[in-house]
């Protein structure tokens, strides 16, 4: 069964010449918030909707705070229906931004939005990516491998975890004594700085 719960639906109006973003997240949504804040004063770009696969994902609260419509879906709806695709198409979404979204993107969504789905990963892909590599698991693996540096990767999404074409990477140094929390912090600073700007550049290229 599909449960569609779009809050602030009355606020959704498809404005001409505005690029529309849909953000997918599973958890806290600190990146989602930075992206929303970045585009608040930009008349040409709108975060139209935030989607989550968990009703308790804190990202939903963050979206509510900005009166951005949200939609929560379950596995059945996501993998066995076209409801999410239809919703995004009805909103004329130009770019789908994954920001801490942990489920694999199904083929129907990739086909409906070819090269229009991007993700951020907290390491320098192709190293330390793939199924099960998320959050502190990534940072632990980086420390165990005694890497001298780590970073972030923003990439297009295909039907495999963390394998699409790389759009942007930024690095930071791992200092002696850095623990998982410290490198997670360093990575998050880079993510918050770069993800909104990379999205803005991609949208600018799309308007040409
Ligand atoms: C980020 O580290 C991102 O690289 C990864 O998931 C995390 C999401 O963090 N894909 P937040 O929910 O945006 O705080």
UniProtKB/TrEMBL annotation:
Pfam families assigned to the protein according to its UniProt record, in alphabetical order: Formyl_trans_N (PF00551)
Catalytic reaction equation(s): N(1)-(5-phospho-beta-D-ribosyl)glycinamide + (6R)-10-formyltetrahydrofolate = N(2)-formyl-N(1)-(5-phospho-beta-D-ribosyl)glycinamide + (6S)-5,6,7,8-tetrahydrofolate + H(+)
Keyword Transferase: yes
GO aspect biological process, one term: 'de novo' IMP biosynthetic process
Catalytic residues as annotated in Swiss-Prot or TrEMBL: 121 (proton donor)
GO molecular function: phosphoribosylglycinamide formyltransferase activity
Annotated pathway: Purine metabolism; IMP biosynthesis via de novo pathway; N(2)-formyl-N(1)-(5-phospho-D-ribosyl)glycinamide from N(1)-(5-phospho-D-ribosyl)glycinamide (10-formyl THF route): step 1/1
Record keyword Kinase present: no
Enzyme class, first EC level, given as a word: transferase
Binding-site list for N(1)-(5-phospho-beta-D-ribosyl)glycinamide: 29-31
UniProt record similarity statement: Belongs to the GART family.
Protein name: Phosphoribosylglycinamide formyltransferase
